[in-house]
Design goal:
Layout (H helix, E strand, L loop, with lengths): L3 E5 L3 H12 L6 E5 L2 H9 L9 E4 L8 H10 L8 E5 L4 H10 L4 E4 L4 H45 L7 H10 L5 H7 L12 E13 L2 H5 L4 H21 L2 E7 L2 E6 L8 H25 L7 E17 L2 E7 L1 H16 L3 E4 H7 L8 E8 L7 E6 L5 H13 L1 H8 L3 H14 L5 H14 L10 E2 L4
Parallel strand pairs: 1-2, 1-3, 3-4, 4-5, 9-11, 12-14
Antiparallel strand pairs: 6-8, 6-9, 7-8, 9-10, 11-13, 12-13
Helix pairs in contact: 9-10, 14-15, 15-16
Length: 468
C-alpha cells in the first residue's frame, strides 16, 4: 500500500522539490501539498480516520497559522496526534531543535537545506515507526475488545444462568482445569460440566491401572541441580504421557518420577487391558530412544518398571470443600503399584496380573507373554498370577526368554510339588544356558531358601512378599 505524505510549506519551490524527491523514491509515495497550516488543518478535518495521511512534513514559519501552532492543534486531536510530524525548517539552532522535539512533540527535525537521501531515509524511518505503532494500537484495541467481550459474557452468565460449557469462557476454564484433572476423569465426576462438580462424588467401575517408576531415581537425580532435575522430569513425563494418550488412557497422577495412568473403556476402543499393554510397550520404546540420546551425551541410561492390573475401582473426589483432588481408589490401584515394584525382583520391564491377561481375551496377537509366578503381595490376602510382557526387550533377550519358556514347565512342576532340589538343578541349568534371562536365577535362589527354611504343610507354590 502506497504511503501518503503531506508537505505543508509556504514556499512553492520547496514543496516542488520535496515532491520530486519523494516521488523519485523506490516506494513511490503519494504526495499532497498545502501552502500553510490553516489549509492543511481544514483539509484534514474533511477526512475520516482511515483516510488520514501517514506523515506530515511541516515548515515552522508560515502565514496565517505557523508550523508551531499547527503541530499544537495536531497533537491535541485524538486522531491527528498519531500522524508523525517532521519539521522541515530553516530554524537550525539548538534552541529551535529542542523546542521542536521536546516542547512541541515533533517526531523528527530536518534543517533546510537538506540532502535528498537524508530526507528519504528519515521519511522511511518515521513510516516504519508509524506502522509499528498502528499495529500496536490495533492489537491493544483487539485486546480491549476481547476483555470487554469477556466482561459482557460474564455478566450474561450471571444474569441468564447459562451453563459454563455453552460459553467460550467455560471452554477456556475447562481446558485450564484439564491441565490438573484429566478430561477422562472429568467426564466421570462432572459429566454435565464443571459447575456440577461436587465434593465427595464417587463412581465405581472396572478399569485397567498402569504404574511406572524410574529405577534408582535418587542416584540419577543427585548430581543434577534443582532446575536440571525439573527439566529432566518434565521432558521424561511429557514423553511417557504421549504413549498413554495415543492408546486411549489418561494420566491420573504424577508422583515425583512415578506415573499412574488409567485406561477406561472408550468409544475408540473397548479393550482397556490391551490399550494399557500397548501404552506400556510405547513407553519402553520411547525410553529406548531417550537412552540413545543420553548415551550420545555421555549420560547413564534410564530404566523403568511398569505394573498393570485390571479390576474394580472407585473414581471420585477426595479431601474437603476448600481443597479436593481427583483420585482412583481400590485394590486394583494398590496391586498395579505392587506389580511395578516387583519388576526389579524379576528383572522385568513390564509385569501384569492374571485379571489383565483374562481381560485381553482374543486380543493377544503380536504379544510376547509368559507366566512367571503366583504371588501374594503385601497388603493383599488373595494370590495373583503374574505375567511378563517382553516385546520391548532386545532381540537376544527375547530369544533367551523364549528358550526358557520352552523348558519351564518341568522345573515349575517340581517346584510346586516341593521337590526343590530337583527343581533347583533344572533352574540352574537354565540360568547357565540362558544367562540373559534373569528368571531362572530367581527360582534358583528361591529353591535354596525353601530348602533351608521349609514352609508350612499347606504351602501351595505361592510366594509371599512381605515388603512393598
Amino acid at each position: 500500500m502506497i504511503s501518503s505524505i503531506v508537505i505543508v510549506d509556504d514556499s512553492r519551490s520547496i514543496r516542488g522539490h520535496v515532491r520530486r524527491v519523494l516521488e523519485s523514491a523506490s516506494e513511490g509515495f503519494q504526495v499532497i501539498e498545502h501552502e500553510d497550516g490553516l489549509h492543511a488543518l481544514r483539509w484534514l478535518s474533511t477526512l475520516s480516520p482511515k483516510k488520514l495521511p501517514d506523515l506530515i512534513l511541516l515548515d515552522r514559519n508560515m502565514p496565517q497559522i505557523s508550523g508551531d501552532e499547527c503541530i499544537r492543534i495536531l497533537k491535541a486531536d485524538a486522531h491527528w496526534k498519531n500522524i508523525p510530524v517532521l519539521f522541515l525548517t530553516a530554524q537550525v539552532s539548538t534552541e529551535n531543535l529542542v523546542q521542536g522535539l521536546v516542547q512541541l512533540a515533533a517526531d523528527d527535525y530536518l534543517p533546510k537545506p537538506f540532502a535528498a537521501d537524508e530526507l528519504i531515509a528519515r521519511v522511511q524511518v518515521l513510516l516504519r515507526m508509524k506502522k509499528a505503532e498502528d499495529q500496536s494500537r490495533e492489537l491493544n484495541h483487539q485486546l480491549q475488545q476481547a476483555l470487554d467481550e469477556q466482561v459482557i459474557a460474564y455478566q450474561e452468565l450471571k444474569t441468564t444462568k447459562l451453563k459454563l460449557a455453552e460459553t467460550e469462557a467455560a471452554n477456556r476454564l475447562t481446558r485450564l482445569f484439564e491441565k490438573f484433572v484429566p478430561k477422562g476423569f472429568l467426564e466421570r465426576i462432572a459429566p454435565e460440566g464443571l459447575e456440577s462438580l461436587r465434593f465427595g462424588t464417587a463412581e465405581s467401575d472396572e478399569a485397567t491401572i498402569l504404574f511406572s517408576d524410574i529405577r534408582s531415581f535418587t542416584d540419577l537425580s543427585e548430581p543434577l541441580s534443582p532446575q536440571e532435575l525439573m527439566d529432566f522430569l518434565n521432558d521424561y513425563l511429557k514423553m511417557m504421557n504421549m504413549s498413554i494418550m495415543v492408546n486411549h488412557g489418561f494420566v491420573d497422577k504424577f508422583i515425583g518420577d512415578a506415573v499412574m495412568a488409567i485406561f477406561d473403556r472408550t468409544e475408540q476402543s473397548s479393550n482397556d487391558a490391551r490399550n494399557a499393554l500397548n501404552a506400556g510397550m510405547g513407553m519402553l520404546q520411547v525410553l529406548g530412544t531417550m537412552n540413545q540420546k543420553r548415551k550420545r551425551q555421555g549420560q547413564v541410561p534410564i530404566s523403568i518398571g511398569i505394573g498393570i492390573h485390571t479390576g474394580p475401582v472407585v473414581f471420585g473426589t477426595l479431601g474437603f470443600e476448600e481443597r479436593m483432588d481427583s483420585t482412583v481408589l481400590g485394590d486394583a490401584v494398590n496391586l498395579a503399584s505392587r506389580l511395578e515394584s516387583l519388576t526389579k525382583y524379576y528383572g522385568a520391564s513390564l509385569l501384569f496380573s492374571d485379571q489383565t491377561f483374562d481381560a485381553l481375551g482374543d486380543e493377544k496377537e503380536n504379544l510376547l507373554i509368559r507366566k512367571i509366578d503366583t504371588v501374594m503381595v503385601k497388603g493383599r490376602k488373595q494370590a495373583v498370577t503374574i505375567y511378563e510382557l517382553f516385546n520391548s526387550d532386545s532381540l537376544d533377550v527375547q530369544s533367551a526368554k523364549k528358550m526358557v519358556m520352552q523348558s519351564l514347565e518341568e522345573p515349575l512342576s517340581l517346584y510346586r510339588q516341593k521337590k526343590w532340589m530337583e527343581a533347583q538343578q533344572l533352574f540352574t541349568d537354565l540360568a547357565r544356558n540362558q544367562p540373559l534371562d534373569s528368571l531362572p536365577a530367581v527360582y534358583v535362589e528361591r529353591c535354596q531358601n525353601l530348602l533351608e527354611n521349609p514352609p508350612s504343610d499347606d504351602w501351595a507354590g505361592v510366594h509371599v512378599f512381605n515388603q512393598k
